[in-house]
Amino acid sequence: MIDKGFHEIRETLSRGEPLKKFTIIDCHAHLGQWFNFHIPEYDEKSLIKSMDILGIDKMCISALLSIGPDFLYGNEWVHKVVKQYPDRFFGYIGVNPNYPELIESEIEKHWERGRMSAIKIHPETHDYPPDGMEYHRVYEILQERRGLLLSHVWGIDNVKVFGKLAKQYDSVTFILGHSGGVPKAIYEAIKVASECNNVYLDLTGSFHYEGIVELMVREVGADRVLFGTDAPFLDSRPAVGRVGYAEISEEDKAKILGLNMKKILDSLI
C-alpha cells in the first residue's frame, strides 16, 4: 500500500466505521478476567463483537489465567477457542516456569502450526526472572523451532535482559510486550530493536506518550512495530486510534496495524 497523500485510516475512524479495507491483526490480547479489574465482557464472543466494531481481523490471544494462577486451564481454553474460530484467533501457549516439570509437555500438547505455535510468558506475575534457567528451556525450544515469543516487558532492566536474550537466541522472534512501558525503558527497547532484527516493539499499554509511535517508526522503522490492544484487560478502541491518528504515512499505519504481524504468523506455518 502506498501513501497517496490522504488519510483513509484516520478518516474512517473519525466516522466511527470499522477498518474493513485493511488487514488488522492484534498481536497481544487475552481471554478471561483479572483479579483486581472489572472486566464485564471477557470471552471469545465478546472479543469478536469488539473486533467487528473496529475491523480487527484476528487477535493473538493468551488466557489471563495462563499468566496468572492456572496456565493449564488457560491453555485449554485458548486451544478450544482457536479451534472453533481459526480465522479470528491465533493462540499463545502460556508457560509458568514455577512448574518446570510441565513446561515441555504443555508446549507439546498445544503446539499446532498456524493456530497455536507461539509462547507467552509473564515474568512479573509469575515472579521469575526472564533470564532464569527454566525460561531458557522455553527459549531453546523456540530456537529449535524458529518460533515466536511474546513477553510482558516492563522497566529498563527487563528490556536490557531481553536485548541479551535476543542476541543469544537469534532464531526466535521476540515481541517486547508494552515495549518496556515507561519512558527510559521504551528508549532502551528502541535501541534493542535497532540492534536486533528479531525484536519487535509492541504498542499495548493503558497509557501512552505523545509521539511514541512516530518515534518508533523514525528510529526503528515501521516494519518492526506491532499493533496490540491487551483486550479485554484494556479497551481496544484507544489502541486502534493510537495508530490511526499517528503522524506517519498510510503505508506505515497499514504495516503496524496488521501486515507486520501477518508476515510473522505466515512464517510460523
TrEMBL record:
Source taxon at top rank: Bacteria
CDD domains: metallo-dependent_hydrolases (cd01292)
Domain Amidohydrolase-related intervals: 25-264
Protein's recorded name: Amidohydrolase
GO molecular function, one term: carboxy-lyase activity
Pfam families attached to this UniProt entry: Amidohydro_2 (PF04909)
PANTHER family, alphabetized: 2-AMINO-3-CARBOXYLMUCONATE-6-SEMIALDEHYDE DECARBOXYLASE
InterPro entries: ACMSD, Amidohydro-rel, Metal_Hydrolase
Keywords: Hydrolase, Lyase
